[in-house]
Amino acid sequence: MTGRLDDDDGTRPRREGTELDLERRVTAYLRDAPARAPDHLLGVAARRVNETPQRRRGLRVRGFPVGWAAVAAAVVVGVAVSLRWGGETSPSMTAPAASGPVAPSGPVAASFAAPRDPVVVWRSDLPTITRSLVEVDDDLWAVLADARVVRLETGSGRLIAELDARLDDPTGVAAGAAVVWIGSTDGRLVKVDAAAGRVETAVAVGIAHHAVVANDEAVWVAGLSAARRIDARTLAVTPLALEPGVMELGLVGEELWATYRNGRVVAADPLTGEPLATITATSGAGEREGGLIAPAPGGAWVLDARNGVTLHRIDAASDTVVGSVRLGPPGRPSALAVDADGVWVLSATDGLLAHVDDDTLAVTDAIRVAPGARGIALVRDGLAIWGDGGVEILDVDGER
Predict the structure, then answer these.
(1) What is the mean pLDDT of residues 334-343?
(2) Is residue 225 left, alpha or beta, with left meaning phi > 0 and alpha meaning psi from -120 to 50?
(3) What CATH number does the domain containing 331 carry?
(4) Does a structural domain hold residue 5?
(5) Domain count, the chain
């Protein structure tokens, strides 16, 4: 099915250009919509789990090897949302005290202590907005707004290669085995051979897509209308049975997880997209959307899709929300990056980075960051943060 512009398995007629163009416009609006929405107060948390009979009997999906380093790098970067920068604020409330995992009866309120100044390891100034970034074989690959792809040397940030992805509007990016995958709103998925330093091919997946995740075996993309799986070796394109309307994708263990606007998180078979379980993680409607997902050991962190300010910790073994923390207002989370102790949260419009502890949900660190930040990822040199001014690597280990 490689190169087809069909909606499904080849039985449907080729879509007209006007339809694909409309979907591209809506996808672009979806990508930037969070930047236009204000934060909102929250309601009461409610969760429920619906499992298929196969899942209850313990039948899991057909296995495939998943490297945590590749998954973390791919997903953290694939879910970073581009936001405009707002005014700077310095909340003075301290984080709530906690002695263990928070019961799932409702979100705990958390605020950031006065943020400290960042410790910059190195910085690379780039000619235009950095839209996304991924680490492959120790070097960093940044996708710029004009579809250029640049390779930055680890340890120095020196620009060592520059390619043209030849895309009208690049969206998500993910890493596989020595490969960088770049999604787009024009229905193509670009494959960059990181070892050779060249654009290898462009796969026509047939849908505008904003969500992209990958491992060494395959890459998954999702847009407003549908989702696809692309074999990393053969480039064969397979339609997935995921319901339309996916916000973000994540690889959690041996499953493909998808977030939706109504607060549902669907765990699906990565080969077919058939649902295996549904977790509802919502704390009441708000005026700002979330939906970010960051896989973590034993589960995932999910930003509440309905209010955009509550962070949920989901346990993959039980498919339940085991804790929730409300990060705003004033916090407006826009990107997540998981480390060994918890998760880093970028609140771009507030100029803040905060670290949330995995066990207590307490905010253990807060860092003031420069205007223009759009995404974050844990890389070998530290915490990468990128946006309007290029790429910076921050030392985040010494203060906690």
Answers:
(1) 96
(2) alpha
(3) 2.130.10.10
(4) no
(5) 1
